[in-house]
Amino acid sequence: MKAVVFSLGSILLIMAVVFSVAWLAIYVYRQGNKGRRSPLTGKLLRSPGQSLIPQINEISEKVEEDMFGLFMIPLATFAILMGELYWGLLKPTLGNMRGCQGLA
Fold first, then answer.
1. N-to-C CA span, the chain
2. CA-CA distance, 10 to 85, in Å (whole number)?
3. I want to staple 89 with a disulfide (CB 3.0 to 4.6 A). Which of 2, 29, 56, 84 is the partner?
4. Does the predicted TM-score (pTM) go above 0.85?
């Protein structure tokens, strides 16, 4: 029973410290902003180059697709070859390994 009371007391103490620090931070923030107002009162114009953002996004997507294919096609080909060699569907002969002659 003492352990439960001790743990609840410590939890309440920690919560009191956290809430008091949060209240103090909010108070200091509000005191710092008294008497200030935003200079942006009217409707803002578009930023420079904003009309180019859709074109940039489209080009970025095309580049990502090309890079994905550039890395995945050789990886998939190698995985298929290794899978066939592992499962015995393809016997490793000189004809199969013709592209690997420079590696040995």
1. 74
2. 64
3. 84
4. no
Looking at the fold, whether 64 and 100 belong to one and the same domain comes out as yes
How many residues are given for the chain? Answer: 104
Contact (Cβ atoms closer than 8 angstroms) between residue 96 and residue 102: no
Are 61 and 99 found together in one domain?
yes
Q: Is residue 42 part of a domain?
A: no
Per-residue pLDDT of the chain (104 residues; tens, 9 = 90+): 777 777 788 888 899 999 999 999 998 888 877 777 777 777 878 888 888 999 999 999 999 999 998 999 989 988 888 888 888 776 766 665 655 554 44
